[in-house]
Amino acid sequence: MNVFRFMLQNRGQVLDLTLEHLRLVGFSTLFAMLIGIPLGIAIAHWPRFNRPVLASANIIQTIPSLALFGFLLPLPWLGERADRLAILALTLYALLPIIRNTYTGIRGVDPAVVEAGRGMGLTESQLLFQVELPLAVSVILSGVRVAVVISVGLATIAAAIGAGGLGEFIFRGLAMVDDRVILAGAIPAAILALLADFSVGWLERRLQPR
Amino acid sequence: MPAAAIPVIEFRDVAYRVAETQVLSGFNLQIQSGETLVLLGRSGSGKTTSLKLVNRLLSPTSGEIRVKGVSNTEGDVIRLRRGIGYVIQDVGLFPHFTVERNIGLVPKIEGWTADRIRARVLELLQTVGLGADIATRYPHQLSGGQRQRVGVARALAADPEILLMDEPFGALDPLTRDELQLEFLSLQQRLHKTVVFVTHDLREALRLGSRIALMEAGRLVTALEPREFLRSEDPLASAYVRALGAGLELADHNLADRDSADRGGS
After folding, report:
1. Which residue of B has its CA nearest to A207?
2. For a tag site, which of A34, B56, B232, B265 has the least CB within 10 Å?
């Protein structure tokens, strides 16, 4: 098929854009985990903050992605480079599933286990790192998995603000009305999403507590 | 009782209120070293609350709890809890740890060497009547009775002087419960811990307790030795005794009825 011929002819660029795409998704997921997991832990322990935090993350999710990229454009430092902006936007989108699953995972730990742990003299941080997090890890990872899959898709739109990634092909193809070019971006993106889904899913099962 | 003996646990005018509910009020009780004090009462009478006040899982609204002569709010709560074994009905074993790690967790945190922990775990497994082969299993691979035995072993791990037990045998079938009660008695004969044991079952209280503290609606009604309890004139205490007796009588009747029905039928 000539899609594949096209991809083969442009393999250098396909590879570059794929790596760029991975970079956007990788950094944004990493940042979302760094912010989202502690936030999820916090709202699991102080339920007072649970509504405002989850509601904010929810609202962010409802902003159309193209609009969000636009809104962030005037930000200082971040606005200077499109890839920074894209990473920020993708991070914001990835927050909700990660916060929510961390919250659910920690709240889902058997209260008797937590009570026993506290009663036998574990400190709150020992309780968190030895008991709560290990027991919640697979639920948290399933949130990460959702976040990654969403990010791979959304990152294609980042090309609209010039952040690169596989969206470049898609937008170029749209402009050229050339299906081959669109697919040269869409197919690797779909494969990336599937791979991410599979590998985080594998990790999730590996870390499943008994 | 010599007047000089400092009670291991002492409740002084303790009250506990949550929102508008007075869970515990005017609670005074002294528990002496080596005693098995049973807190008996129906659900909502404040037994579990009293227990959790001792290891500061809860803090009293007023009054104080003294442990070994010192108010339990003095000093570090973590140290306090590590010196008190805690066993609950739902056991709460860590599902992602083997039996060995469950029992050895506090010793490990306390910085014991691996060899010493290992030896202690094996010793404790024996103490609670389990084989060494169980050490590598996970909680979900155990029966209810085995799980509770591990729970007791875990509570004993750092050799605490005090043991708090909240209906530890409540969820077990009658035969396993009987077995564990007997084992608890023989354990207590050897170890002489100061035990506070919560139950709603008079039979269990009579069997295990050296003293029974009867609670109702957040108040201590009376604290008596089992023998005295059976003869007590207190209306609530005698109601408990009657209920226990009635259960046996009813069973008798039932059997007698069935016997005569069998005879009539044949």
Report:
1. B96
2. B265
